[in-house]
Write a structure and sequence with these properties.
Blueprint (H helix, E strand, L loop, with lengths): L1 H11 L2 E5 L5 E5 L5 E4 L3 H7 L6 E3 L12 H4 L21 H7 L3 E5 L3 H11 L3 E4 L10 H13 L3 H19 L9 E4 L11 E2 L4 H6 L13 E2 L2 H7 L3 E5 L8 H4 L3 H4 L3 E4 L9 H15 L9 H13 L4 H8 L3 E2 L10
Parallel strand pairs: 3-4, 3-5, 5-6, 7-10, 10-11
Antiparallel strand pairs: 1-2, 8-9, 11-12
Helix pairs in contact: 6-7, 7-12, 12-13
GO molecular function, one term: ATP binding
Keywords: ATP-binding, Nucleotide-binding
Protein name: HemV-3 iron (III) ABC transporter, ATP-binding protein
């Protein structure tokens, strides 16, 4: 009954009713002219929908570490917008600043129902909440539902369908290339609520799982964990992948004793966990890992070309060269026994 009443009110007021990721019914204008995106992952999905021109202000956090965020690299004009809060998992926003910008809607990532309702009560601006699911994951129904929601918010239903289809096709393409390997594989320096060194890993690393391979670290932990150096040295992986955001924390005094270092089997991947999952980077990393470990299965993939194809579709511009210049890009690390990293 409540939804029916809201629908009738929306029709009268030239508005529409949106059901967000928390199953809240939100009454928003039919034609969104200005919006604000706050919280983890919100602005990224707005860019995926091609609606960045509607954004009136961004969080301070979005202006930092931009080389890990293709959606910002592709649209640096966003950096010139007013700051509407610090950002972060607790969504620290400046309500007065948001009110002054007069947005038609606030897109909020990962906030509670009570906080969303509180923001609307204090600002008079409708809040639509979105979610990607658990941190570090991608291509799940919560993500696709959030893309659909934003398609309805910005009247970009076709684009939302195209984005979902594109991501699902990437997923399908990679999974059909699954392979087995006897090599011991490890992922290190995994970024999680900050940057870390080689002992930071993810036992259930999503790109590994998608490819059908396992992290040499056997644990039931579904998220990031730290292991001790002795355990890593004892396992002595054949191949190591490094999240390049943590390179400055890797000490040559330890890594040079590992088998993978001595056999030149350490590879850099781009960081994809930064203010929630950078979906495009996650898939690019997965393609690269597959090409390193099973080149025959990925012989048709030019990794740089594929990466820029993904970025161009999702954020509108190729970003690989900029990211590679900053982080190092897809390549072997420590080749030639270069030990010192600064």
């Amino acid at each position: 009954m409540k939804k029916l009443v809201l629908l009738l009110v929306a029709i009268i007021l030239n508005a529409k009713v949106i059901t967000d990721s928390l199953n809240r019914t939100v009454n928003i204008p039919d034609n969104i002219k200005k919006a604000v995106a706050v919280g983890p992952g919100a602005l990224r999905l707005v860019v995926y929908l091609g609606s960045q021109d509607k954004i009136a202000g961004i969080e301070k956090r979005e202006k930092k570490f931009i080389f890990a965020r293709p959606y910002i690299l592709a649209h640096k004009e966003l950096l010139k917008l007013p700051v509407v809060g610090m950002g972060g998992p607790n969504v620290q926003i400046n309500l007065e600043k948001i009110i002054s910008l007069k947005p038609d809607v606030i897109i909020a990532g990962y906030i509670s129902k009570s906080r969303a309702d509180m923001i609307t009560a204090k600002t008079g601006i409708p809040v639509v909440v979105i979610s990607y699911g658990k941190l570090g994951t991608f291509a799940n129904e919560k993500l696709f539902n959030s893309i659909k929601i934003l398609g309805e918010v910005f009247n970009k239903q076709k684009r939302a369908e195209d984005v979902t289809k594109y991501i699902k096709n990437l997923d399908k393409d990679i999974k059909k290339r699954k392979f087995k390997t006897d090599k011991k594989i490890y992922i290190g320096a995994v970024a999680f609520k900050g940057l870390h060194g080689i002992t930071s890993t993810m036992p259930k690393f999503p790109p590994f799982k998608m490819l059908g391979i396992k992290n040499v670290i056997n644990s039931d932990a579904k998220s990031q964990i730290f292991i001790n150096k002795e355990a890593l040295f004892k396992l002595n992986p054949d191949v190591i992948f490094i999240d390049e955001s943590g390179m400055k924390f890797i000490k040559d005094s330890f890594i040079k004793h590992l088998k993978a270092y001595k056999t030149h089997e350490i590879y850099g991947i781009l960081p994809y966990n930064n203010y929630m999952t950078n979906i495009g980077t996650a898939y690019a990393d997965t393609y690269y890992i597959g090409k390193v470990l099973a080149p025959g299965k990925f012989k048709d993939i030019d990794i740089k070309q594929k990466t820029d194809e993904i970025y161009k579709f999702l954020v509108g511009k190729p970003c690989y060269n900029s990211m590679a210049e900053f982080f190092g890009g897809f390549k072997k690390l420590f080749k030639g026994f270069v030990c010192r990293i600064i």
